[in-house]
Design brief:
Blueprint lengths: L1 H6 L7 H19 L13 H7 L8 H23 L8 H6 L4 H10 L12 H26 L12 E3 L2 E3 L1
Antiparallel strand pairs: 1-2
Helix pairs in contact: 4-6
Length: 171
């Protein structure tokens, strides 16, 4: 993002504009010197996935959704950090005010993804039902395998355990 902006820069010719930009840089330097500069962690280039969201029927990968969420959270943290800063920031407040807050997106993503960035079972009722069915079927399959190992195949097996290879259970 920043590199693209830098590559598109053209030399300024207006003394007033130059002074204004220098004042912005000076205020940011003061924030850094006062150890009050916001962390820029969590800012990602999410233009492509956001653009695809405008296309009917488009699908985003979970990783893309998480990057959007992290960027939204970073914008909130940066805005909050700059607003609570004790140093003069009148020249950069224009940028701070442009940072849009989307608490509804943050809340929704927290409800869908857990701390390990996995989709929660409770993300939707349908998903909860599907995952419960998978757990029940897996449990039933394991009980059947254990029954076979103790029952009619007891003497046919070299080892009395099961394992999983390439997604399949093996005795």
């Amino acid at each position: 993002l920043g590199q693209e902006a830098i590559e598109q820069l053209q030399p300024l010719t207006s003394l007033e504009t130059i002074r204004g930009r220098l004042a912005e840089v000076t205020q940011m330097v003061h924030l850094y010197e006062a150890d009050q500069a916001p962390s820029l962690d969590g800012i990602y280039d999410v233009r492509d996935p956001l653009h695809r969201c405008t296309v009917t029927g488009a699908i985003l990968e979970a990783a893309e959704i998480l990057l959007i969420g992290e960027t939204v959270s970073a914008a909130r943290r940066i805005r909050s950090s700059l607003r609570s800063s004790q140093t003069d920031k009148a020249k950069i407040s224009y940028y701070t005010d442009r940072l849009a807050l989307h608490p509804e997106i943050e809340r929704s993503l927290h409800q869908v993804f857990d701390e390990q960035k996995n989709i929660r079972d409770t993300a939707t009722k349908a998903l909860a039902k599907i995952r419960k069915s998978i757990r029940n079927q897996r449990s039933l399959l394991i009980r059947k395998l254990e029954h076979l190992m103790r029952g009619r195949w007891k003497n046919s097996l070299q080892e009395h355990y099961y394992t999983q290879r390439e997604g399949r259970y093996v005795l």
